[in-house]
Amino acid sequence: MVEHILNLDSVFASLSDSTRRDILRRVAEKQLSVSEVAKPYKLGFAAISKHLKVLEKARLIIKHRQGKEHIIQLSPAAVKNAADYLIHYQTIWDRRFDALEMLLIHLPAEEKTGWPKTIKAPRKTL
To answer: What is the CATH classification number for the domain harbouring 69?
Structure first.
C-alpha cells in the first residue's frame, strides 16, 4: 500500500512538468529513440536525459536497448494506476453534484432565489 502511494506521488510529480507530459504524449503514440525524443526541444541532451530518468523512476516509461539506441515506450500500468486513482474521486464528485442537482430541482422557487414567485428579485446594478 505504501509503495503504491509513493509511486502515485512520483507519477503526479512527474506529470507536473509540461516537457515530461509532452514526452509521455509522444511515446504513447509510438516508441521513440532518445534522440527522437530530444529532437523537438530546445534542451540539451543532458536535460532530456534527466526528464527521461524522472519518467522512468515513476514507471511511466520503459527504456530498453535496441542495437546502439535506447528506445523509450509508454508503460501503461503506471498510467492506469493514476487513472484509476482519479476515477475514484471523479465518481465521488459526480455523486455529490448529482445530489446537489436533485436538491435544487426539488426546492420551491422562493427557496432557490430567496424571493417568493410573485415578487421579482431586484436587479443588481453595477
So the answer is: 1.10.10.10
What range defines the domain where residue 52 resides?
1-112
In a domain, 123, yes or no: no
Q: What is the pLDDT of residues 48-92, one digit of tens each?
A: 999 999 999 999 999 999 999 999 999 988 788 888 888 988 989
- Domain presence at residue 8: yes
3-state secondary structure of 115: coil
Give the helix/strand (H/E) hosting 92: helix 76-106
Render pLDDT for 8-64 as a digit per residue (tens, 0 to 9).
888 999 999 999 999 999 999 999 999 999 999 999 999 999 999 999 999 999 999
